[in-house]
Amino acid sequence: MQNFTKFGKKIVAICRNFSEHAKELGNAVPTSPTFFLKPTTSYLLSGGKLEIPKGCIVHHEVELGVVIGKDGRDIRKSEAMNYVEGYALGIDMTARNLQEVAKKKGLPWSTSKGFDTFTPIGEFIPKSEIKDPHNVDLWLKLNEEIKQNGTTKDMIFDIPTLIEHVSSIMKLEKGDLILTGTPSGVGPIHPGQVITAGLNVNDKNLSTIKFPVVERVGLFEYKL
Amino acid sequence: MQNFTKFGKKIVAICRNFSEHAKELGNAVPTSPTFFLKPTTSYLLSGGKLEIPKGCIVHHEVELGVVIGKDGRDIRKSEAMNYVEGYALGIDMTARNLQEVAKKKGLPWSTSKGFDTFTPIGEFIPKSEIKDPHNVDLWLKLNEEIKQNGTTKDMIFDIPTLIEHVSSIMKLEKGDLILTGTPSGVGPIHPGQVITAGLNVNDKNLSTIKFPVVERVGLFEYKL
Ligand SMILES: [Mg+2]
Ligand SMILES: [Mg+2]
Ligand SMILES: [Mg+2]
């Protein structure tokens, strides 16, 4: 499953799954899980560069990714962990100014969440290496400054609940990724900075990712 | 490319690309293309049944699908048709009551657009069979009653413009589908009905799809 980023078809990203993060953006804490889709073309693998599209204010959201190991629909909570093959550290990059406009106008989030390189992703971590996915520390630095430092203990909806909910709407397939939401501390990132994120269990680091940030070259430019 | 539904990873669906349809839902006519993502798990192929999730008011939107033939990013309008391998008739099924709530709350459209079976799709049509994709008739019937009867002449943004816009945000890959928006006449569909849709060029039918409509059995139920 090392190469789930190559054959997986879906990235399902949960929003507002940490109450401190919901509050920092002025959002209501939800009563059921809410999610959106990111395209797999947004994966950014080791060795690449994180691209900031022109005119976009881009925020980092460090998250635990859950890698699905077999196909399932209407998966019950009690069975859900049997569908998990492993984990990966991910960052759900978000063009916050575009997302704010979309939210106000009632439009989809797909552009603000879906640019190429907007899902930096770490190596596949086999399930056996994380005994309790609800006790994982997630951290993120811009250059040398810590910006996010949270724990999956604070998730509002746990992983079995997320799998049951998503699979009651859309079939999950081997290689799909569920991003489980970000803890608080999100903020903007700029070309010239370096973004580093890590996933620790009991103070042991299991995954680190590091990417230089550049301006996206190309046709896209957001103008108010 | 007959099996683009098997290996393709993205369905990019354009919204409000026909002004009569934008008006019928009370939406502003857009000044640039807007899109959302549907999961490929939502494809419904010949022989299947269209499922209506409990508590959902589900609308039909008949659309011309464009099948991408090679990978590209920042594809210019002038080159865009070289990336088109063919076409397919599609229906962008929408849980309209869930979408209305999402729009009011500024939440993503992924649930309302993403249920299993929510993208009924016809056979691959090679590019050579449709000389002018901007002169294609699209029609849809519920049982024997015609509900939609439009032409791609009325698109606000043409196919090259859509390809340039989407690929300036997210890379397009071989097998991806772009649904180009629906003409007016959308409306609800209920278990027990039969939905039939067709794609005609100069009064010649190139594709017809037909599906029985059933209630979705499973865990999902929408309650206000
Ligand atoms: Mg997808
Ligand atoms: Mg997120
Ligand atoms: Mg549509």
Task: Please give a quick description of this structure.
Two copies of one chain form a homodimer. With 224 residues, chain A is of the alpha+beta class.
Core attributes:
5-stranded mixed sheet, Fumarylacetoacetase-like_C (chains A, B), 6 helices, 224 residues, Fumarylacetoacetate hydrolase, domain 2, 6-stranded mixed sheet, 16 strands, binds magnesium ion, 17% helix, homodimer, Fumarylacetoacetase_C_sf (chains A, B), alpha+beta
Q: How are the secondary structure elements laid out?
A:
2 copies of one chain form a homodimer.
Chain A (H helix, E strand, L loop, with lengths): L3 H4 L3 E5 L3 H6 L9 E5 L4 E2 L5 E3 L5 E3 L1 E7 L8 H4 L3 E8 L2 E2 H10 L4 H5 L4 E2 L4 E2 L10 E6 L2 E7 L7 H9 L9 E3 L7 E3 L4 E8 L2 E12 L9
Parallel strand pairs in A: 1-13, 3-9, 4-16
Antiparallel strand pairs in A: 1-2, 5-8, 5-14, 6-7, 6-13, 7-10, 11-12, 11-15, 15-16
The structure holds magnesium ion (3 copies).
Mind explaining what this structure looks like?
Two copies of one chain form a homodimer. Chain A has one domain: Fumarylacetoacetate hydrolase, domain 2 (Alpha-Beta Complex). In chain A, the strands form four sheets. Chain A has a six-stranded mixed β-sheet with strand order 2-1-13-6-7-10. The model of chain A has no long low-confidence stretch (mean pLDDT 96). Chain A has 224 residues and is an alpha+beta fold. The termini of chain A are far apart. The first copy, chain A, has six helices and 16 strands. Chain A is 17% helix and 35% strand. The radius of gyration of chain A is 16 Å and the shape is globular. Bound molecules: magnesium ion (3 copies). One magnesium ion binds next to strand 1 of chain B. Chains A, B: Keywords: Metal-binding. Chains A, B: This is Fumarylacetoacetase-like C-terminal domain-containing protein. Chains A, B: Belongs to the FAH family. Chains A, B: InterPro entries: Fumarylacetoacetase-like_C, Fumarylacetoacetase_C_sf.
